[in-house]
Amino acid sequence: MKIYSHSKVTMGGDMVFINPRKKSRELLYYEALKVRSHLSQDELYQYEVVVKGYEGECLYDDLLDESGHNNLLVLRDLYLKVGQSVTQFDSILISDYELKVNEIKNFSGDYKYVNDQLFKGNQTISDDPLHQLGRATGKIKRLVQPDKNRLLVEGKLIYVNDEFYLTSDNDMLWKNIVARGNLKRYFRQVNSVSSSGDRAEKLVEILQNHEVDNPYFNLKADFNRVKKGVYCGQCGSFHLQKDRFHFVCLSCGCKESNETHVLRAICDYQHLFYDDLMTRSKLYDFVDGKVSGKTIWRVLSKFCRIVKNGPSTYYKLNYHDFNEAMAAIDISSKRYKDIINLNN
């Protein structure tokens, strides 16, 4: 999948994404915590909810790719501040004269709408997705002023899971819903009547000028709770044997360089202690001294920006997560290669 930069509109080929779909801070937090600690029942439940949501968003992206969207600009997974509140948007399809807000849900099972309230069995869904969609669409209208700009703004609730079943006696409900079986048809229809030129680019600019970081997730792990050290990127085992330039996993045989292990630890630290000041000494303690201070300094200097705070120096990761950082490396120039054991 071709992904364009977050801050720049790039057009060409048959895909026009304005920003990449990235794992949320919440998902990255729980992924790191799951490896380095035992999740409580509440944490495990929330982790599974976040994973399922992300998988649904990725499935939506894949289906959109398969259907084609060369006449659209697509913004994904962003938070917009409108007035004093911040709203999250899963996907926004933008053309010169239309803007489609897509709220993506990866629900499975039997659901029903009764008196404008969503139920799964006899359980009420507290934050009704249609109400979410209405609020999000209203926020967008405040930003782009559709009447003034001759623009159609509408929202659709997208159910991507083919194991989702919904019943309702309210026929008006269905005009706001697209189920998995009709999703490709919906994408093709939107794309076929759209064009994206200067007007669409201006709409993207308006929206991105109101973009902010997620203000709602602020969990931070207890440093004493998490397991220190380095672990295998393939199986998650901390049972490693140190060579001069690598660690070899004694569980699966995977061999990864010191640099790879330190980079993974840097990412874990940033995800688990987001607003903490990351220093060389803290990272050395975090890896339990398994890697030398000199190697830690070299990897920090390569993948992080240095920030001076009075007499102290701390580091901020230049990348969103481990995979993004690894993708930026020229593997051919990497002195010590990682060797993955594909037989496990």
Automatic annotation (TrEMBL):
PROSITE patterns: NERD (PS50965). Pfam families: NERD. It comes from the Bacteria. Residues 52-163 form the NERD domain. This is Nuclease-related domain protein. It comes from Jeotgalicoccus meleagridis. The lineage of its organism: Bacteria, Bacillati, Bacillota, Bacilli, Bacillales.
